[in-house]
């Protein structure tokens, strides 16, 4: 009992002393402590804007104040939107090796891969306007460039086919406007809309055209993402190579016939239904009626589903990446 009493007295004394200390501390002292903590421990840096840069081989007129400030605006937004930008780095390691060779094969500048980043974040996103996939094709434009979509399939979600279609579309826009920055702007707002604004304002230079807010920011968002992903540490991103999402090794199989049960198809091919749908996001149903009796090429894991769970196991490269 005596021990319990002593413990109780000690605890009560500590509590009272704490209260005295709290109430004895003037408000001004607390505010000063916070001010000093912010000054000593918290840092927000303005992004570095280069003296010069290019987009798809075309010089960006950074000597024009509104061009420089528009780029600064997008750099600040994307530099400090850390969660999204960090995910872009991780996904890019998986998908840039797929996208880059297709751009090169179609003679489209490699910088256009950053257009894909700002369009979808390298995911099969769906926009309010029903644009879909990495390259955000609306149904009509997708169909025009060979990306079929219906209740059973949506080829806008096939990254390879969608990148091929985007190359054709970007090439047609460049042939019309003779500028990659204008082609990128038209990709966002439509070629007829951009053409009207050029005629009304008497200029065909993207940076000198007054546009709606989204299209007016569009190329600058691409430029900002290019700078951040090409110079990650300069903009505060220290990402280890082992943190990135690895490419997924796959094999292919043919999917054909009518009324195909995809649950059974997955089992027959030694994988799971979830893995089948994950590797082939263009599939939109669990039963492919396929009335036209078409044949499709599907991706499957190189071995059983268990091996995919250990994809990132093994040696860890802890070196920081220097560019994407």
| N-to-C SSE string, H for helix and E for strand | HHEEHHHHHHHHEEHHEEH
Distance between the termini: 69 Å
Strand composition percent: 5-15%
Biggest sheet features? 2 strands, antiparallel
* Strand element count: 6
CATH C-level name of the largest domain: Mainly Alpha
The averaged pLDDT comes out at 89
Q: Tell me what the CATH architecture of the largest domain is.
A: Orthogonal Bundle
Shape: globular
Outline the low-pLDDT stretches.
16-24
Number of helices: 13
Concise structural overview:
With 324 residues, the protein is mainly alpha-helical. It has helices at 2-24, 27-41, 65-79, 82-105, 113-120, 139-144, 159-177, 180-189, 191-201, 213-230, 262-268, 273-279, 305-309, and strands at residues 54-55, 58-59, 250-255, 260-261, 287-288, 296-301.
Which features would summarize this protein structure in a list?
single chain; 324 residues; mainly alpha; Lysozyme; 2 domains; two-stranded antiparallel ribbon; 52% helix
